[in-house]
Amino acid sequence: MEGKLHDLPADRPVITLCHSGNRSLVAAEVLNRRGIVAQSMHGGIAAWSRIYDVASLPLGEGAEVLQVRRLGKGCLSYLVVAGGEAAVIDPSWQTGQYVEAAAARGAAIRAVIDTHLHADHVSGGRGLAEATGAPLYLNPADPFAYDQFTAVGEGFTVGVGPLSMTAMAAPGHTAGSVAWRLGDDALVTGDVLFLESIGRPDLHGKAEAFARDLYRTLRRLAALPQDLMILPGHFPEDTRLIYGRPHTDRLGAVRARLRFDAEDEETFVVRASRVPERPPNMAAILEINKHGTHVQPEEVATLEEGPNRCAVKPAG
Question: What pTM was computed for the model?
Answer without folding.
Answer: 0.87
